[in-house]
Amino acid sequence: MDPFNSASAEAAERALLTCLRSLRWAHRLADHRPYPDLDALLAAADEAAYDLTPSDLAEALAGESLPTLPEDAYGAAHMALNAAHAAYEARFGHAFVIYLGDTPEGEALDHALAGIRSRLTNDPEEERVVAAEELRRLARGRLVRLLRGAGNSATNHDEPALGR
């Protein structure tokens, strides 16, 4: 937690934006530092995510993309997911988001396809609530990875460094 707590506000916000692309969410978490531990940060992140306005949610969803399929996924799976995603975007106007962090790697594709197909039946307000919850879960998982990565000497080139 020390690198995150001691980072400049700008560096902390940049790092937080890799977890959830909402400026309000990132500002709020950066402004309330220091956090005593990861659990306190995750609780604050959840609270801030629950407080997202519809425009904050739209901003966060605009920064998302389709979950990455495993490299060995067959071509038909890519086509099926792309077709379902196109239908989802046409219906709801934003990218499909789903948290797959607790899903075994071999089941991720099936879970994503089942999720997108079942959520296509939601009405727009119901889907907004589901998408907000999935974004909250994604942000939690990304925060954990970000902070665990900040504490070791290995560099993750996809996420900004903290404490600089």
UniProtKB/TrEMBL annotation:
Name of the molecule in the record: 2-oxo-4-hydroxy-4-carboxy-5-ureidoimidazoline decarboxylase
GO MF term list: 2-oxo-4-hydroxy-4-carboxy-5-ureidoimidazoline decarboxylase activity
Occurrences of domain Oxo-4-hydroxy-4-carboxy-5-ureidoimidazoline decarboxylase (ranges): 5-143
GO biological process per UniProt: purine nucleobase metabolic process
Protein keywords: Lyase, Purine metabolism
A Pfam match: OHCU_decarbox
Domain of life: Bacteria
EC number: 4.1.1.97
NCBIfam families hit by this protein: PRK13798.1 (NF010372)
UniProt cross-references to SUPFAM superfamilies, sorted A to Z: UraD-Like (SSF158694)
